[in-house]
Write a structure and sequence with these properties.
α8 (about 210-230) packs parallel to α9 (about 255-270). The protein is α/β, with parallel strands linked by helices. A hairpin with a 2-residue loop joins β1 and β2. It starts with a strand and ends in a 9-residue tail after the last helix. It has helices spanning about 20-25, 35-50, 70-75, 85-95, 110-120, 130-145, 180-190, 210-230, 255-270, 280-285, 315-320, 410; strands spanning about 5, 10-15, 15, 30-35, 55-60, 80-85, 100-105, 125, 145-155, 175, 195-200, 235-240, 275, 290-300, 305-310, 325-330, 335-340, 350-360, 365-370, 390-395, 400-405. The protein is globular and about 70 Å long. Strands 4, 14, 15, 16, 17, 18, 19, 20 and 21 form a nine-stranded mixed beta sheet that branches. Bound molecules: ligand LLP. Ligand LLP binds near residues 280, 317, 375 and 379. Ligand LLP binds near residues 279, 280, 282 and 375. One of its GO terms (biological process) is lysine biosynthetic process via diaminopimelate. It catalyses: meso-2,6-diaminopimelate + H(+) = L-lysine + CO2. Belongs to the Orn/Lys/Arg decarboxylase class-II family. LysA subfamily.
Length: about 425
């Protein structure tokens, strides 16, 4: 469910007509609905309420959309954060997310990142190797602090999603192999400066079926038992993120958050741990659109080329993962047409859809890419010396520019370097 609807024939975000935003800030522009993201945060929080010991920690995966205004909205409804760099850590802290609600994931945390986040405070480091454990131990010992740790386990489960967003198989770089887990915990126990409190996993993104998640969680449950048998005090289980979002009528609908919560309750009953969740896309995916203008329609061999002013640098998901984003006219006439939809960037990968039947549009018309709130702006870049896309947040009848279109000067590099 989202808050992008036609009113009097014009697509609105909440109570704001999208042409008003296009006229004010230009295109392409990401437009986010505060009501949608807040609702999804509440849906997720409600879905897992009562699961595990104490209050579950819903730690929003900031990588999905780390705009400061978005983070501020989510902080306001009580979400924590899953961060993967010190940059994300700083952003979520300045958005008002408390240290005790932050987990730090990622295979390549540097010593400097560990030092800053440990000093600043966080709930848990999700550690992905014995080598990382040793580095974190040294950092903690040097500061005279204790780092709380969960070990990320790679359960070797096929998640049933695109290969590039699958993270829990033996061929992925993530986590500690399931069969090596007991040995890794034994190492961790003997290292100074660490308090080993948890187990963590994340098997992939845009998951449609609950089956792989359930299989992975079952393995994690068995591991918790084995770890306790070895004398480890495991009080936290971080189940990662990954639940997909609907992408329109032509795409498979993922399991609902409620069904996910029910499955979690069933599988984790008896674990006797606090639960942590790291949803990203689920919170912000359908809370955003990429608003773009048709530059021109050019004849093509099979279908006309619909050339819009957004490109692969603004929304990389199609080029990277063959993702499917629904496209709608902002002022649909009711007529349909079939297009190949492309951007202006000079490579054939800059294609949003081939043979897509959608609202008929012409030069100058506004179009939106739906479900662009997650991994849209946060993955954008300035390839072809294009300007980083602006971002707008809508809240009821008001809107605000929450990232200006970055100046070319900021991005250009230095023509006359200061040599050293
Ligand atoms: N936790 C960890 C450790 C992760 O690596 C991720 C996503 C998440 C949580 C959040 O997953 P979500 O709930 O959003 O599925 N750029 C890709 C998605 C990459 C996801 C990377 N990790 C895309 O556009 O589909």
């Amino acid at each position: 469910m989202d808050h992008f609807d036609l009113r009097d024939g014009v697509l609105h975000c909440e109570d704001v007509p999208l042409p008003l935003i296009a006229d004010a800030v230009g295109t392409p522009t990401y437009v986010y609905s505060a009501a949608t993201m807040v609702r999804h945060a509440e849906v997720m929080t409600d879905a897992v309420a009562g699961a595990g010991n104490g209050e579950p920690l819903v730690a929003y995966a900031a990588k999905a959309n780390s705009n400061a205004a978005v983070l501020r909205q989510l902080a306001g409804v009580g979400l924590g954060a899953d961060v993967v760099s010190v940059g994300e850590y700083r952003r979520v802290r300045s958005a008002g997310i408390a240290p005790e609600k932050i987990v730090f994931s990622g295979v390549g945390k540097t010593e400097a990142e560990m030092a800053e986040t440990l000093a600043g405070g966080l709930f848990q480091f999700n550690v992905e190797s014995v080598e990382e454990l040793r580095m974190l131990s040294a950092v903690a010992a040097a500061q005279g602090r204790v780092a709380r740790v969960g070990l990320r386990i790679n359960p070797d489960v096929e998640a049933g999603t695109h290969a590039k967003i699958t993270t829990g198989t033996a061929d992925n770089k993530f986590g500690i192999a399931y069969q090596d887990a007991l040995a890794a915990y034994a190492v961790a126990r003997d290292l100074p400066g660490l308090k080993v409190q948890g187990v963590t996993m994340h098997i992939g993104s845009q998951l449609v079926s609950l089956d792989p998640l359930q299989a992975a969680f079952a393995k994690l449950g068995a591991l918790i038992g084995a770890l306790r048998g070895d004398g480890h005090a495991i009080g936290v289980a971080d189940l990662g993120g990954g639940l997909g979002v609907p992408h329109g009528d032509d795409q498979p609908d993922p399991a609902s958050p409620a069904a996910y919560g029910e499955m979690v309750r069933r599988v984790t009953a008896g674990w006797d741990t606090r639960l942590v969740f790291e949803p990203g896309r689920l919170i912000v995916g359908n809370a955003g659109v990429l608003l773009t203008r048709v530059i021109r329609v050019k004849p093509g061999a099979r279908h006309p080329w619909l050339i819009v002013d957004a490109a692969m640098n603004d929304l990389m998901r199609v080029a990277l993962y063959d993702a499917w984003h629904e496209m709608n006219a902002v002022r649909p006439s009711g007529a349909q047409a079939t297009y190949n939809v492309v951007g202006p960037v000079c490579e054939s990968g800059d294609t949003f859809a081939m043979a897509r039947t959608m609202d008929r549009v012409g030069a100058g018309d506004l179009v939106v890419f739906r479900t662009a709130g997650a991994y849209g702006a946060s993955m954008s870049n300035n390839y072809n010396s294009r300007l980083l896309t602006a971002e707008v947040l809508v809240d009821g009848g008001r809107w605000a520019l929450v990232r200006r279109r970055v100046d070319l000067d900021d991005l250009a590099g230095v023509a006359d370097p200061i040599w050293r």
